[in-house]
Amino acid sequence: MSYIEIRDLDFSYNGKKKVLESINLQVEKGEWIACLGHNGSGKSTLAKALVGLLEPELGEIEIDGLLLTEETAYEIRKKIGIVFQNPDNQFVGVTVRDDIAFGMENLCVPREEMIEKIDFYAKKVNMLDFLDKEPTNLSGGQKQQVAIAGILAMQSEIIIFDEATSMLDPFSREELIKYIRTLHKEGLTIIMITHDINEALLADKILVLNKGKIEAFEETEKIMKKREVFVESRLELPIALDLANALESNGNATKIRKKLWEYALTK
Amino acid sequence: MKSVIIGQYIPGKGLFYRLDPRTKIIAVLLIMIAVFLLESITHLLIGFGIAFMLLIIGRISVIKVIKGLKPIMILLIFTFIFQIILNREGEMIVNHEMYLTLYTALFLVLAFVVWRVLVKFTRFRFTMFFLFVAGVYLILRYVDFGYQLLSPFNFQVYEAGLRMSAFVVIRLLIIITLSTVLTLTTKPTNLTQGLEKLMHPLKKIGFNSEDFALIISISLRYIPTIFDEANKIMLAQASRGADFSEGKLKDKLKQVISLLVPMFIIAFMRSEELANAMESRNFVPGNKRTRINELIFSYRDVIATAFSVLVLALAIVLKVI
Prior knowledge:
The structure holds two protein chains of two kinds.
Chain A: E1 4-12, E2 18-27, E3 32-36, H1 43-50, E4 58-63, E5 66-67, H2 73-79, E6 80-83, H3 96-106, H4 111-124, H5 140-153, E7 158-162, H6 170-185, E8 189-194, H7 197-200, E9 205-210, E10 213-219, H8 220-223, H9 227-232, H10 239-250, H11 253-266
Parallel strand pairs in A: 3-8, 3-9, 6-7, 7-8
Antiparallel strand pairs in A: 1-2, 1-4, 4-5, 9-10
Helix pairs in contact in A: 3-4, 3-5, 4-5, 5-6, 10-11
Chain B: H1 15-18, H2 21-37, H3 41-57, H4 62-86, E1 92-101, H5 102-121, H6 125-142, E2 148-158, H7 159-185, H8 188-198, H9 209-239, H10 249-280, H11 299-320
Antiparallel strand pairs in B: 1-2
Helix pairs in contact in B: 2-7, 2-8, 2-11, 3-7, 4-7, 5-6, 8-9, 9-10
């Protein structure tokens, strides 16, 4: 039995077009999964289904041996937290302190314990000096850090990042990625939904979704060799993959130089 | 838009800042009731003196309270004038003959123009207004030459009129001073929390004060964000040629609508995402929650509440006697 098990999951918003179709997925504890896919491929829908925000049409989701139903959603959300794309739309509290506390308040954590945990986790995400600040005085990256602290304070073991870096400036983005790496090292299970192939390369495994179906789900190194997966799913090709292909085909230096030049131009 | 101030709260230290918001709300309510029970000018003036003393004890800048009074100044002035002119009970105190001649009319127009010009170029709007009213009175009273447009009439002030107008004005002044102290020294979030706790007993009749307080505090939290959004949309529309400052009323209305529609759509989308974020963090409406911000009722609050109860008791005693 895996840590996260998704069995034959189907989902549609209006009963007509399927957004997710026969999804079968196993994630082990402590794994870092990157989920890639073009717009409308069902990435975010999958994330929302995992935390029980959307009810699947068919199929089951099991997390740490607990089947996700309306009754168990509360228990499951203790284990799994989600950081959304827009840093502003998930900041519930009036101050950083209030926001980190929000989840714990819902879990009825005693006040003294909350104060301790807020200090601990705020320090962890480098927000200790900002506890009394209001969200308008924070950058997007800082708001995402606060969201992470709020989830960690609920003692979650799985964190889903639903395109959490896409609205950040390059610096904040790098900081956040660095932080996700630390969380992964500490043993948290991470599911990172992203558009950015270079972010995905950091993960242990990559899940490619295409039109609601799983196109591929393999170790990052293995999937990197499969050009057709990326082409099929209309994804940007990782430069390493392109270069390797160019080298393998005939080792022509001009061709490699051309590829690198193209890469430099697009970045 | 980092400087959007919500409410009138000004950070500071002092007695009133350290009081529990519940105490402040209750005290303001009790004293308001007391103020309405008082029936003599002397008592009211004493009340006003006490309110003023509270300002000094709380080390609250009087200027800030006066600024808080500004929006209702006009209301105060009009009630005062109407009471004086229309109330005709009791002894007559003032009986002045007034004239309206061609010259009077001319002077009145002149006074009006001077007033408007001065208002435009100086900062003392209220002083100018008072000077204007005084000027009108003097012109009507003493410019008695020239062709009579109306036969002379009497400006009469009766004792009851004067008393009633003083009553209304002092009462309003006390009440507004007190509520300004409340809003100056209490953070909006603490104010909602105080209201939440005070309205908690209403749960029995199906009113969930916790949800109500959460709604208010989230609204407060999102006001600056939504302002930001409005700014962005206005800039985006201005960059495509929309002009928010000029044009006819009809055009302006159209522009406001073109701003409101996207604002509403964005707000709805935002609220859905926010609901998702809250739900994913295990928020269930109506469930029991612990709170990080606990209100603490200390000995100061006991004293303050006792004081306001005392004021009310005194007012009741005075009323009965």
